[in-house]
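User: Second chain of the day. Same drill as before.
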Amino acid sequence: MVSMAMWTACGGGGGSSNPGGNTGGGGGGGTGGQVNAPTVVSVSAGQTVLGVNITVVGAASSPTPNATAVGADGGHAFSSGDVMHQNSTATIIVAGKGLNTSMKASLSGPADITIGALQPVTFTDKTTGISFTATVSSNAALGARTLILQDTKNDITTFTGGLEVVP
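Assistant: Same format as last time:
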């Protein structure tokens, strides 16, 4: 079991569903590739867009995926995220409802971090989540990365800036 510190609502909220392509960066999760990218349609007030059907749907999954805490090594997950070091391998843990090992995982930014297979995790307070190994290249770009998790029903949760690459 691992513990979770500073359990407050931060991070994500799913609810989007789309058949689109792939996002760039970060590498795919252990279950079949990167998260599907949204299809961007730009419109202004009162403007008509021809040839595009836009449907806003509710979340398909129950419970809806929601990443609320992330940690890198140390056995703790934080609502503020954590750091990963260049040229290292970190065990990433993610807490939240609706997270499971059949999800696809990726990180925003350049493709300089490899994500391993997702594993189930149960925290000391009985919160469930997932873990995976992240291998950070020696020349990985420094800065914050957003963790993106997509389930089999295309619901997505993100943890914005949840993992920061440091020297």
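The longest strand covers residues 156-166.

User: Great, on to the next one.
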